[in-house]
Structure formats: C-alpha cells, structure tokens
Q: What sequence folds into this?
C-alpha cells in the first residue's frame, strides 16, 4: 500500500480497523531482524575472542570505522551510561583488544583505540561476515542491496533523535 492507501488501512476499531498494517509489518520484521542481529553479534564477539561480550562487539565496529574516540562520545553514540561504557571498555582492555592514549586536544582526557591485535581479530571476523552476506544476497540485484543500505541508514539516522 502506498500514499492514500496507507490511510485507508489505518482507520477504525480494534479488529483490524485502526491498525496500520504497514507499521505492524515493519515492527514484526524489525523484531526478527534485531533478534537475529543480537544472536549474530554474540557469535561474532566469540569469534573475535571467546570471552568477549556480545554488546562489546559494536564498540569494535565503531572504533574501526571512526578511529580513536573518547569513552564519553562512545557512550553518547550507543545511548548508554558512562558506567556501562567504562565496564565494557575495561573488559576490552583486559582482552588486549583496545587501549587508551592521551587525547592530544585535551591532556586530561583519553582516547580509546583498537590495538593491532584487536584490529586484526575484528577485521577477520568482519570480512567473514561480509562473505556470508554476499552469499545470502547473491541473487539480489546490486541496486536492491544499495537501496536496503540507504533505507537502513536513513532509519538509523532518524533513530538517533
């Protein structure tokens, strides 16, 4: 359904009326996608290091894509408290995957970055994951893949607010 049809499906009462079917379908598909993504993050985290928590895998993704960052900036990006971020970063440091260095812009602060070992382990797992995506999407048109990436990016940008 597009345009005016969306509104036509969204009026009425409890049994199918007043239900916006497109948003229900979106919610259902996002729920499945997120559940699978969480499971995949756990698997990928264990591939990076057997003791790595699933939630910490996202930190590696962010640090690899942005370079060194302050812990406070990471906490804001992920929408978690400073204590949670500190705990996750300490765990990554203990595993030798990240390290801290003094922020050249502010000697009182530190920047977190991937260690050589952290980068090597992360890129190995990431490259294998990309290979699995390529297999799953082998029969998709490249334009469809680009459109999916564009739409997910747009959705993620809106979700930051």
A:
């Amino acid at each position: 359904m597009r345009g005016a049809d969306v509104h036509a499906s969204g009026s009425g009462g409890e049994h199918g009326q007043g239900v916006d079917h497109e948003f229900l379908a979106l919610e259902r598909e996002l729920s499945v996608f997120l559940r699978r993504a969480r499971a995949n993050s756990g698997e990928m985290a264990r591939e990076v290091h057997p003791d790595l928590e699933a939630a910490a895998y996202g930190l590696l993704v962010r640090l690899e894509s942005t370079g060194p960052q302050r812990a406070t900036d990471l906490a804001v990006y992920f929408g978690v408290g400073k204590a949670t971020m500190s705990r996750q970063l300490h765990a990554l440091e203990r595993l030798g995957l990240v390290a801290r260095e003094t922020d050249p812009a502010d000697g009182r602060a530190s920047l977190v970055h991937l260690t050589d070992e952290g980068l090597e382990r992360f890129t190995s797992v990431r490259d294998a994951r990309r290979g699995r995506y390529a297999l799953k999407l082998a029969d998709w048109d490249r334009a469809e893949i680009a459109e999916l990436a564009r739409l997910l990016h747009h959705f993620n940008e809106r979700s930051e607010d």
